[in-house]
Write a structure and sequence with these properties.
- The chain has about 110 residues and is of the alpha+beta class.
- The chain has a domain at about 5-15 and about 35-90.
- Helix content is about 25%, strand content about 10%.
- A two-stranded antiparallel ribbon has the order 1-2.
- The radius of gyration is 18 Å and the shape is extended.
Length: about 110
Amino acid sequence: MPPDLRESFFLGPIDDHRAHSAFIPEAAASYAPNILPEQPSGFATTMTELYRGFERMSQDLLRVFALAIELPETWFVDKIGRHFSIMSSHHYPPLQEQPRPGQLRTGAHTDFGA
C-alpha cells in the first residue's frame, strides 16, 4: 500500500507516565517523550498549549456526560488521569503528480482517546 499523501505531526501525551507502567515490559515505549521541533519559533509552545486546551475540554465534557447520566460529576476523573490521547495535525500539500493506484490523502484508520 503506498503512503498517505499528507504530512502529519503527532503530540501527546505531554505528562510523563512512564514510571506508572515501568513494570510492564511491553509498555516501555508507550510514553516516550515528545520530540518537538525548534522551528518555526513558538511552534512547540503553541502545540503544547493547544494540546492542554483539548485536554481541559475533554475533562469538561466528561463532567457533563457524568451529570447527564446521573453520576457524580467527578465520576470519570480517576479513569482518565493517565490518558493516552494523541493530538494529530495534518497538512495536505497540493498534489504535484497523480497519486499511485490505491494512494489516498488519509487511509483507513481509527481515532482513540478522549
